[in-house]
Amino acid sequence: MGVTPHQIRVEVGELALTGFRVDPERVSAAFESELTRLIRAHGVPLATEGALTVDALSGLPPLPAGLSARRLGQELARAVHEGLSGYGEVAR
Protein backbone atom coordinates (compact mmCIF):
# COMPACT_ATOMS: atom_id res chain seq x y z
CA MET A 1 0.00 0.00 0.00
CA GLY A 2 1.70 3.22 -1.19
CA VAL A 3 1.35 6.37 0.84
CA THR A 4 1.49 9.73 -0.88
CA PRO A 5 3.52 12.15 1.25
CA HIS A 6 1.99 15.49 2.14
CA GLN A 7 5.38 17.14 2.26
CA ILE A 8 8.72 16.51 0.63
CA ARG A 9 11.77 18.33 1.95
CA VAL A 10 15.04 18.30 0.08
CA GLU A 11 18.09 19.93 1.64
CA VAL A 12 21.15 20.44 -0.53
CA GLY A 13 24.18 21.29 1.55
CA GLU A 14 26.46 22.35 -1.29
CA LEU A 15 26.51 22.70 -5.06
CA ALA A 16 30.13 22.73 -6.22
CA LEU A 17 30.41 24.75 -9.45
CA THR A 18 34.06 24.10 -10.31
CA GLY A 19 34.92 25.25 -13.83
CA PHE A 20 31.77 27.33 -14.37
CA ARG A 21 31.79 31.11 -14.79
CA VAL A 22 28.24 31.88 -13.70
CA ASP A 23 26.43 33.75 -10.94
CA PRO A 24 25.91 31.17 -8.16
CA GLU A 25 22.76 32.95 -6.92
CA ARG A 26 21.10 32.58 -10.32
CA VAL A 27 22.20 28.95 -10.57
CA SER A 28 20.75 28.28 -7.13
CA ALA A 29 17.42 29.94 -7.97
CA ALA A 30 17.09 27.98 -11.23
CA PHE A 31 18.12 24.76 -9.44
CA GLU A 32 15.50 25.20 -6.72
CA SER A 33 12.76 26.08 -9.18
CA GLU A 34 13.46 23.13 -11.49
CA LEU A 35 13.91 20.60 -8.68
CA THR A 36 10.62 21.73 -7.15
CA ARG A 37 8.90 21.31 -10.52
CA LEU A 38 10.38 17.83 -11.04
CA ILE A 39 9.44 16.62 -7.57
CA ARG A 40 5.88 17.90 -7.96
CA ALA A 41 5.59 16.22 -11.34
CA HIS A 42 7.38 12.94 -10.59
CA GLY A 43 7.89 12.65 -6.83
CA VAL A 44 11.01 11.08 -5.31
CA PRO A 45 10.99 7.43 -6.39
CA LEU A 46 13.66 6.34 -3.88
CA ALA A 47 11.43 7.58 -1.04
CA THR A 48 8.35 5.50 -1.92
CA GLU A 49 8.97 3.30 1.12
CA GLY A 50 9.12 6.25 3.53
CA ALA A 51 11.61 8.85 4.71
CA LEU A 52 14.96 8.87 2.94
CA THR A 53 18.24 10.48 3.91
CA VAL A 54 20.94 10.65 1.24
CA ASP A 55 24.43 11.86 2.10
CA ALA A 56 25.71 12.09 -1.46
CA LEU A 57 24.76 11.42 -5.06
CA SER A 58 27.51 10.39 -7.45
CA GLY A 59 27.82 8.82 -10.86
CA LEU A 60 25.72 11.61 -12.37
CA PRO A 61 26.43 12.92 -15.87
CA PRO A 62 29.00 15.71 -16.39
CA LEU A 63 27.65 19.07 -17.54
CA PRO A 64 29.15 21.32 -20.25
CA ALA A 65 31.00 24.36 -18.83
CA GLY A 66 29.42 26.86 -21.28
CA LEU A 67 25.87 26.75 -19.92
CA SER A 68 24.05 29.88 -18.74
CA ALA A 69 23.31 30.18 -15.02
CA ARG A 70 19.63 29.34 -15.60
CA ARG A 71 20.37 26.35 -17.80
CA LEU A 72 23.09 25.08 -15.45
CA GLY A 73 20.68 25.24 -12.50
CA GLN A 74 18.06 23.34 -14.48
CA GLU A 75 20.50 20.65 -15.60
CA LEU A 76 21.87 20.24 -12.06
CA ALA A 77 18.30 19.82 -10.76
CA ARG A 78 17.59 17.20 -13.41
CA ALA A 79 20.77 15.32 -12.51
CA VAL A 80 19.90 15.41 -8.80
CA HIS A 81 16.35 14.28 -9.48
CA GLU A 82 17.69 11.40 -11.60
CA GLY A 83 19.84 10.41 -8.63
CA LEU A 84 16.79 10.54 -6.37
CA SER A 85 14.99 8.41 -8.95
CA GLY A 86 17.47 5.55 -8.65
CA TYR A 87 20.01 6.50 -11.31
CA GLY A 88 23.60 7.09 -10.23
CA GLU A 89 25.09 5.95 -6.94
CA VAL A 90 23.46 6.96 -3.65
CA ALA A 91 25.38 7.11 -0.38
CA ARG A 92 23.08 6.83 2.64
UniProtKB/TrEMBL annotation:
Task: Tell me the lineage of the source organism.
Answer: Bacteria, Bacillati, Actinomycetota, Actinomycetes, Kitasatosporales
Name of this protein: Uncharacterized protein
User: Which species expresses this protein natively?
Assistant: Streptomyces cupreus
